[in-house]
Amino acid sequence: MTDQAQDPGPAPGQQPRTRIEPRLQLLGISKTYPSVVANDGVDLTVMPGEIHAVLGENGAGKSTLMKIIYGVTRPDAGQVMWEGREVRIASPSGARRLGIGMVFQHFALFETLTVAENIALALDDKITPARLAPRIRAVSEQYGLPLDPERRVHSMSVGERQRVEIVRCLLQSPRLLIMDEPTSVLTPDAVQTLFVSLRQLAAEGVSILYISHKLDEIQALCDKATVLRAGRVSGTAVPREETAHSLAELMIGGDLPTCSLAPRAPGEVCLQLDQLDLASSDPFGTHLQGISLALRAGEITGLAGISGNGQQELLKALSGEQLAPRPDSIRILGRDAGRLDAAQRRRLGLGFVPEERLGRGAVPGLSLADNALLTGYLQPATGMLKGGLVRRGAVRAFADAVIERFKVKCGGAGAAATSLSGGNLQKFIVGREIRLAPKVMVLAQPTWGVDIGAAMLIRQAIIDLRDQGVAVLVLSEELDELFMTCDRIAVLAKGRLSRAVPVRETSINRIGVWMSGEFIETETIEGANHVPA
Amino acid sequence: MSRLEARPEPSRVMMLASPLIAAAAMLVTGSLLFLFLGQAPLHAFHVYFIAPFGSAYGIGELLLKATPLILCGVGLAIGFRANVHNIGADGQLTMGAVAAGCVALYFDGVDAPWVLPLMIAAGALGGLAWAAVPALLRVRFNTSEILVSLMLVYVAYQFLGYLVHGPLRDPAGFNFPQSKMFGESATLPLLVEGLRVNAAFPLSLLAVLGAWFFCRHTFAGYRMQVSGMAPAAALYAGFSEPKNVWLAFMVSGALAGVAGVGEVAGPLGQLQPSVSPGYGFAAIIVAYVGRLHPLGVLLASLLMSLLYIGGESAQIELQLPSAITGLFQGLLLFYLLAADLFIHYRFKPRTRPTPTTPPATGPSASFATETAPHES
Amino acid sequence: MNPDYVIAFLASTAGAATPLVLASTGELVAERSGVMNLGLEGVMLVGAVAGFAATLHSGSPGLGLLAALAAGMGMALVFAVLVLTLQTNQVATGLALTLFGLGLSAFLGRDLVGQTVAPLPHLSIPVLSNLPFVGPLLFRFDALVYVSLALVGLVAWVLARTRTGLLIRAVGEAPHSAHAIGMPVLKLRYATVLFGGALAGLGGAYMSLALTPMWAEGMTAGRGWIALAQVVFATWKPRGLLLGAYLFGGVTVLQFHGQGLGIPIPSEFLSMLPYLATIVVLVVICRNPQTILLNKPMSLGQNFKAD
Known about the structure:
The complex is a heterotrimer. Chain A folds into three domains: 24-252, P-loop containing nucleotide triphosphate hydrolases (Rossmann fold, 3-Layer(aba) Sandwich), CATH 3.40.50; 257-349 and 438-533, Rossmann fold, CATH 3.40.50.300; 360-435, no CATH class. Chain A has 16 helices and 23 strands. Chain A has helices at residues 62-69, 92-98, 115-122, 129-142, 158-170, 188-203, 215-221, 244-252, 311-319, 342-348, 368-376, 392-405, 422-435, 452-467, 479-485, 508-514, and strands spanning 24-33, 36-46, 51-55, 77-82, 85-87, 100-103, 176-180, 207-212, 224-229, 232-237, 269-278, 288-296, 299-304, 330-332, 335-336, 350-353, 385-386, 389-390, 440-444, 471-476, 488-493, 496-497, 501-502. In chain A, the strands form five sheets. In chain A, strands 13, 16, 19, 20, 21, 22 and 23 form a seven-stranded mixed sheet that branches. Chain A starts with 23 loop residues before the first strand and ends in a 19-residue tail after the last helix. Residues 1-6 and 524-533 of chain A have low confidence and may be disordered. Chain B is mainly α. Chain B has a domain at 67-289. In chain B, helix 2 crosses helix 12 (294-318), helix 3 packs antiparallel against helix 10 (241-264) and helix 11 (279-289) packs across helix 12. Chain C has a single domain, classed as ABC transporter involved in vitamin B12 uptake, BtuC (Orthogonal Bundle), CATH 1.10.3470. The mean pLDDT of chain C is 89. Classes of the chains: A alpha/beta, B mainly alpha, C mainly alpha.
């Protein structure tokens, strides 16, 4: 598997053939952070007009490599060669001057400004938004990503916002475009549209660095792939000539692990949403309309959908962080819970793992033990509280138990939450909630940004919960994960909820269609007192 | 130039050291200031910072001035830990003094042992009631408690002014704006004959103990701490923010009110147009310098008290302006804030290629980055 | 009631309002870029004492105003270095700045108490100043009153229509996004904070050079805090600042003209009015959380550190 064709040179008497320089070449790039080696002697070669994948699981070092290329950070060792010359990329504007554009995973957009204002801000030459508008229209049409320059970003869906990011890059005529996990915010249809645009760009000579961990996408789109594993290059490949198995081998040293669900008849309804209408507390958020859903014991229900379609609002409504207008719109184990706060709902038996680890699921400045107390106090069996006083011994014992059972790699229960990696902190939070023996468990993006090992442990823990008779709801943007771990699946789109269908009776494509809002309305709840709209 | 790099974990050493560093820096600056003002720095330093310790009376004054600082500071620290900023302690102190003064004057001539406890209770209630307003407005109307509590300070000052110029003015006082002197039964007993420090001081120590126990051992203290560190986590855990706001203001208001009683039933002995040289504001500095920890507040109060006493002596002995005290107080807090930097960051000398910092504070909605183990 | 008296009363609101207009306009710019300076009170006082001292010693009010501007910027620079470069907590640092400013101004002004200077001269605009009624009401103020009004207009225009204003708004909303696309976040914030400090210093000097041409400790009596409330009241839009400042100005002068206008309330209660009015105004604006959510710069009060 070589990266550059070895040119044997011209035969005597012939004209010297010109060698095609790689557009970008990284040689021996290394970068170390205080507690982890992010990149270790990474080599990467991207030719002009090539769509080059950087493949690896979470934690492999892809993000750091991209930050180095885009000038956000600087490497500890190694060289960066741009079109044959060595360069030092000191900042994002330096990268842009060379002709490198980057579409971030977390968009760098200003919600209260218009599309034109957003793009004008990013361009290094000072052009007014008004003069920019026709160029925005032209370029966005040309590449199949139409945009209205006058729209304010806050009114746009996540997929549309990504278009703004892309068009912003394109207006600077990049010669290398970096796309960091672009498809997590797109419906399957929109993914295809994006691929068409990218192929068009590549045909015009633009090189594309495509960061992803999704094997099927890479096989469909990319010419070459460099695989990162634990900070090193484990190999390069031509994706179309490889199988999922061989790519997975490079990525994690074996097949991508799967888990499976033994068929199981669901039990009684543990949590019921009945025509929940909720206005978002965020002025730019999505309002929930007529959400109905029944979670049954011993069943995992998956909720698919692109973020920005009401997920935050639904999660806050479920957890009690935002109260519902009608007390009976949410019922937990038969009790009206719509007007109960988070603590009261947990006492009823609700467990919740939020998508933000630090700052919501755990307090950054506290130790693991103190973080165990955060929700641990609600379970009297833990003995953490007595008469309003905290019993530190019981708190510590609980934290130790979670750490052991869920194999959390840390410096003990006294370690600060910030000292753990994403995967380990997530294991701790999931473990804490599970150990409180909830009857209903809601998890939001449980394996986001988590390495494969931790992800599998978490998925298995969720399945074990289900086998013990807990009603589980998993929200995720990863359709593959949902299809692997859920009994049935529903879609949240534009604040409305689809029917939940058994996983076996549907397909990723069907769900993809539903994600753009085309679905049959929510099911009726048996025994509900009123006729649904 | 070296660059600032985030530490993987906050430095415990620096947490304890930075108040000391700040105090030292202030002392050094102070000495330079003395020099600038034409004073022999060592002598001025001695008069300002050392001499008060030299006599029993000096120590008594130290404890006397520290008392309202401890009372207010302890209350404020509890609130600051929860990100509830009561900036109006001086107003609550004033209203506590007013309430106690009214009781004293109402029962003037009554010689009973319950007058003083009644005054203390009234003072606590007065401060508490005055603090209830910013609490209520924040909880009901989302107003900034900083601005509301501050506005009420000026209102309280005016109200006291009205009382001592009008209804409560001593008829036999030659038209001076002050009330009658409080009677024996309405005055706090002195701790030691000849010194001015009174029974309010042990009360302040009790407050320190109570606050320490509250923060360390009670669940309410934990809730307030989480609320201050990560409001989203507090919401997630079902902690009630209104409860925290009320608790913070009630406690600090009541303690400030008691501090007010300590002044008017103590060294002042009557209601005057002003009953506090800004103790409520100095207590803010005390709370921060004391790292929001009750024991730290106690020590910081003693340091601040030293600044007050030293300032008075320096004014008399060296003709140094009294305004220096305020200057020192401000400087102390500045130095503390600057020194605190090193709790979370350290200097990393430049090597080639430059190592740069991993994200220490990221966007509020950021998830784990794939490589750096620190997230926000 | 004597119509001349009424006119004088109304005209005096401009004097009372101007320090607020100046200080709140400057603070608004800083807050739009995401920085909240709670030390306004201290900055105004230092500006007041600097302006007074400079005028006293040089005889030139122009020099005094310049000194106030510089002093305000100096205080703001201390704040900026601590908050922007050393990443200290904005609330604590602002409070520290206030207390430091109180102390510093008292210290610098210790020998100035009891001295006076000639107040800023009132303008005499040809024709306009001599109009009946309207003349004394609108056209006889000192230059700084008109400058303050012009400043509000200038700030409004810059924020809404220029690239600089766009940059400021962007940084205030999402400093990390701004940094990611290469904007100089800290440099911009330094600029807005210094601008705010300069204007606050000027506002303080207006009090010691025009309103009551003398120096006294703590003479701003909370106006710095009220300016902060004014920015909230105006929902961070410049045009709202004028309404708030002049409303406050009117309430303030009530206490001086109370007896003249025949109001039978003890003077101390009239003196409470500006502060109570500020509280009421805050309640009115803040009670609907959506108002604040929609208008408050999203990064206000949060520190930014580049990766």
